[in-house]
User: Fold these one by one.
Assistant:
Number 1:
Amino acid sequence: MAIRYCKRCGKDTEHRELIKQKPSKYGKSKKEHFKAFLEGFFGGIASPVGASLDLIDRYVICTECGLKTLENYGDEFL
Ligand SMILES: [Zn+2]
């Protein structure tokens, strides 16, 4: 839970995080996904959730109004 400014509420509110995996550009098979993960890993950009940075979308959601904001560049992944 994090306190952030919400545009819709017009004030600082509590937000929760949502992480979604993007559709992979490497194809749909498990083997292809594993390859994509390894490429991310050896590129030094593997994240704690096990997906490379360019394969996930990270959102913060206002717990008061439900406004969802895309926020892909969180510093906890760097
Ligand atoms: Zn809000």
Note: The two ends are 19 Å apart (CA to CA).
Number 2:
Amino acid sequence: MASHAESLKSQYPWTSKPFIVSAPLRAIAGPALATSVSRASGLGFLGAGTDLSNFEQMFSECINILQKSPIPNSLPGIVPIGVGFICWGASLPVALSVITKANLKPAAAWLFAPKEAKDLMEWAQGIRKASNGKTRIWVQVGTVAMAIEIVRSCEPDVLVIQGSDAGGHGLAKSSSIISLLPECADALQREGFGHIPLVAAGGVMDGRGVVAAIALGATGICMGTRFLSTPEAVVSKGYQYAVIRAKDGGVSTARTRLYDSLRGTPGWPEDYNGRGVLNHSFWDHEKGMGEKENTRLYEKAVETGDAGWGDQGRMTTYAGTGVGLIHKVQPAAEIVAEVLREAKKYLTGAQSRL
Ligand SMILES: Cc1cc2nc3c(=O)[nH]c(=O)nc-3n(C[C@H](O)[C@H](O)[C@H](O)COP(=O)(O)O)c2cc1C
């Protein structure tokens, strides 16, 4: 049987080892970020998210970018990027119609946060059919039980194991990948699903995190927060500087549903919340400020533009506990190259300490 790394390499032949993925950051990971990461020998995901009204246009833009300047070793019939859907809110008929109509199919579809785990069967079957089996199914999960349930119901091609350090939304109750990943790997092995490659998400910021995640049993690693500080990410300067300024993510970020209510983005299943940088909205809420007043102040902060972000601001900066390891804005391709280089260096360093 092919190793996990060999099977990922055969499905995504333009990628390097270790396998680096940029997360489908909703409304932030657009065509520029997704194609830059894939061009740099990773797998970039578009963040289609919950609102698919511009999904077709974003996907066509990726096709245009890649037709003008193709990525060597791409497979015929596929676009060498993935697409991420937030399943509780995204329209499955729209997703299927775009994928069916497209001559070239996305290399992977990343499914996340269904209302109920069983909904993913319809997503997985629908996308496999719409893409004539060309689009591989990835599912992001945050507990051992969910990993087992999902592999039994829709046997994904890849499971992304999301730990509690992750930026943005995830399960309110989960552990960090340091224990979650090996426990998932063991449970999947016991259940006869040891052939499914695992990708680690949550807190990986550099080559050290990559080496650690691989030692835990991951074949690939996914970074979300790290790619927020790229020129390709569709975020304002204020957001980006808030990520760069934040240090010591265990205390400067928290998981909360507050930011969803202030931003007017309800709908997340009850067991989910989002990790973001703490700011005056959060502290005022902790001190007992009512939601109406907090929302009013939030909306005023929005009018101030870039100044509304950061620990002295009120606007939402979804980001993970790894924020303290990000020090500058850097092109996505440079991040992928740096992380690949560092992983090899740190692995040698680690070996010498064993
Ligand atoms: C700003 C932001 C937006 C995100 N949006 C999505 C999303 O739309 N869909 C999704 O599956 N995950 C989303 N995530 C979570 C990522 O998939 C991933 O689990 C996480 O970024 C990994 O942890 P890290 O942020 O520490 O790298 C988001 C994360 C961030 C930081």
Note: The chain has a mean pLDDT of 96.
